[in-house]
Amino acid sequence: MIDPDMIDAEIPHLRRYARALVREREAADDLVQDTLERAWRKRVQWRPTGRLRSWLFRMLYRLYLDRRPQLQRAHRNLIALDDVRPPAAAGMDTDAALHCREVMAAIDALPEKQRAILLLVALEQPSYREGARALGLRVGTFRSRLSRAREQLNERLVSAAEPTPTREDANG
């Protein structure tokens, strides 16, 4: 049986992942609230053989997928990166903050399935098995999507870092 304190301990993790996925504070909070309500209704279905966090993340992710069309239409009040990143990154300098924004823009440009995996790994650092369980995937599929996401992210960041040729460069 799930103790309410066990669920309470997972709320910060759920909120951080929901805000990274949705990028709109109220919609993310609604997503977490609905996840918590669903988890409480289905608490007898949870098996202590797995981690509670993975079970909750799977619910959150499935709710997110169900609501994605509405969420994309309401994607107007993007939350600040400061609300998504872990507290340890709060004291970063301006260059680092700019780089983080560039990385977030590159992550946002990824296909949705890759973006969801990359955000989960970046924010929660689950094992491959836990991450796959949280998103309802096979481990091989999870690893493959994560690998492709990392490759595409790297390509986008390298392309963004390359200087654009100026007229003087062309005239040489």
From TrEMBL:
- Which residues does the UniProt record annotate as the domain PhyR sigma2? 7-60
Ranges for the RNA polymerase sigma factor 70 region 4 type domain? 101-153
List the keywords (alphabetical): Sigma factor, Transcription, Transcription regulation
The record's annotation in SUPFAM superfamilies points to:
Sigma2 domain of RNA polymerase sigma factors, Sigma3 and sigma4 domains of RNA polymerase sigma factors
Q: Does the keyword Protease apply?
A: no
Record-given protein name: RNA polymerase subunit sigma-24
- Organism the protein comes from: Salinisphaera orenii MK-B5
Family stated for the protein in its record = Belongs to the sigma-70 factor family. ECF subfamily.
Q: Could you provide one GO biological process annotation from this protein's UniProt record?
A: DNA-templated transcription initiation
- Tell me which CDD domains the record gives: Sigma70_r4
InterPro entries registered for this protein in UniProt: PhyR_sigma2, RNA_pol_sigma-70-like, RNA_pol_sigma-70_dom, RNA_pol_sigma70_r4_t2, RNA_pol_sigma_r2, RNA_pol_sigma_r3/r4-like, WH-like_DNA-bd_sf
Spell out the PANTHER family in the cross-references: RNA POLYMERASE ECF-TYPE SIGMA FACTO, RNA POLYMERASE SIGMA FACTOR RFAY-RELATED
Q: Name one GO molecular function term.
A: sigma factor activity
